Amino acid sequence: MTRPVRPSPNHGPRPEGAPVDLVVIHYTAMTGGWGPSLKRLTDKESGVSAHWLIGEGGECFQMVDESRRAWHAGVGTWGGDGDVNSRSVGIELSNDGASPFAAAQMDALEELLRGIMDRHGIAPEGVIGHSCSAPGRKIDPGPRFDWRRLARSGLAVWSDLDPSAPSAAPDETTFRDDARIAGFDAHQPIDILLESVRLRHRPWLTGPLSPADMAAIADVATRWPAAGHMRAWRSPLLDRRGRRA
After folding, report:
1. pLDDT of 243 above 70
2. How many other C-beta atoms lie within 10 A of the C-beta of residue 151?
3. Which domain covers residue 192, as residue numbers?
4. Cα–Cα distance between 40 and 38 in angstroms, integer?
């Protein structure tokens, strides 16, 4: 399928040897449909971009070639790697951050994801939200995004444990360990880490760390550890501690 190209100047080369093993899903947090978002993402002065933008009606625009490093993820970490932009494809969904995602938009996302995952050999567990890699800084695609729908189509992962099944009592150390194995930055304060995990795996939960949180992240860590799908590579843009050089 041929999709319109609206080139953005905001990109650079991927570092040599960088694997493309992640897809990061965002929302634009803008109103007025896809037009204002496309304008911003292709404006040199904005300093931001993504590879793809999908409108509410299923309109799909390519802004950066997938061989290039788009500027969408910003500061963040996934699977212990602090250079998410170098190893990911970024998809922006036109959404104000509070509205449901339209059916046509989700249909277009599924079709686009299948192609991206096929082209780069990306596993379903490599499809994450911006909130996953930038905890405390970003919450998109937010609690209204339907991760279960993607998982049913083999385009993401979802812990489908029976909520009534017995689970471990809340334990911060164990929760952090499992979150780290699943890919999250476990060095974050517990409230920020908990929010990040919930946005991805249990967006309806509130309050302090619960047995349901423990069960979900333990299931994800066991079935889909980040080390199981992220290819070995170290970004030359980071120092030995995984920070920006």
Report:
1. no
2. 17
3. 172-228
4. 5
